[in-house]
Amino acid sequence: MATIKEVKEQLATLTDLDDYRWASFEDDSRAGVQTAIKQRRKAILAEIAEEERLEMMLSYEKVLYAQGVELIAGVDEVGRGPLAGPVVAAAVILPKFCKIKGLNDSKKIPKSKHEAIYKQVMKEAVAVGVGIKDNHVIDDVNIYEATKLAMAEAIEKLSPKPEHLLIDAMTLDLPIGQTSIIKGDANSLSIAAASIVAKVTRDKMMADYDQEFPGYAFAKNAGYGTKDHLSGLDNFGVTPIHRRSFEPIKSIIKSR
Q1: Rounded Cα–Cα distance for residues 186 and 164 (Å)
Q2: 72-78 and 87-93: which strand pairing?
Q3: Which EC number(s) does the record attach to this protein (predicted)?
Q4: Angle 101-78-220 (CA atoms, 0-180°, nearest 5)?
């Protein structure tokens, strides 16, 4: 009789819930085997669900593929809300029908998996462009306009050039076809890819700023107005990377 370890190895080869081989395993009454069967079935169901999720997130891309459009750039940004640091945008062109397991809106991906999925996107992508606008630009033109400038910069850096843009909840004044998608980073794999690239890029920048400006917990809060960040402002004041047009930074500067 096969050992439980050997049974687990055999179960790992099963990928279809209708496979005739399940019956022979189910006849094994050992508790360890029955547990292994449940675990494998659960894993297969999770794989099926993930495949369905990824397929759904390709719906906008598939409409364009059917029209003969293949170079589709997903565009997204990170950093509109923080009190410090830049706004970062990314534009990513994925290969036709490309699926990356675990790829989703960066806010829905566990932080521990960000780097791995980022690396997979960078490996698979046809092209990646990143645009960065610092706090000075944000203060000069406002965060909305700075975001558009960062997105335009990211798109400009793409090679080959995209034939169509899928953008998260925004329209850009560019001579190229585009589709604005509400919650695009959760509904388009191309935008989700841009979301994780922008997120990881910006997080690394804020971790570097944490070394340059200690006391604000930038590596932890990425510049958002957390308790630690606000405490840092009280104790150490405003840094060169703070957005002076944002509250409470604006009021702090006026009061000093």
Answers
A1: 19
A2: antiparallel
A3: 3.1.26.4
A4: 90
CA nearest neighbour of 203 among 66, 94, 111:
111
φ/ψ of residue 238, rounded to 5: -85, 135
**Does the annotation place 18 within a ligand binding site?**
no
77 is an annotated ligand-binding site residue: yes
The rounded distance, in Å, linking the Cα atoms of 76 and 28 is 51
Q: What is d(CA 194, CA 94) in angstroms, rounded to the nearest whole number?
A: 10
Find how far residue 142's CA is from the centre of its chain.
24
Q: Report pLDDT digits (tens) over 137-189.
A: 999 999 999 999 999 999 999 999 999 999 999 999 999 999 999 999 999 99
Supply the mean pLDDT for the chain: 95
Written as one string, the DSSP assignment of the chain is ---HHHHHHHHTT---TT-TTHHHHHT---HHHHHHHHHHHHHHHHHHHHHHHHHHTTHHHHHHHHTT---EEEEEEE-SS-SBS-EEEEEEEPPTT---TT---GGGS-HHHHHHHHHHHHHH-SEEEEEEE-HHHHHHH-HHHHHHHHHHHHHHT-SSPPSEEEEES----SSSEEEEETTGGGT-HHHHHHHHHHHHHHHHHHHHHHHHSTTS-HHHHTT---HHHHHHHHHH---TTB-TTSTTHHHHHHT-
Rounded CA-CA distance 209/59 in Å is 39
Residue 51 in marked binding region: no
In this structure, how many other beta carbons lie within 10 angstroms of the beta carbon of residue 77?
A: 28
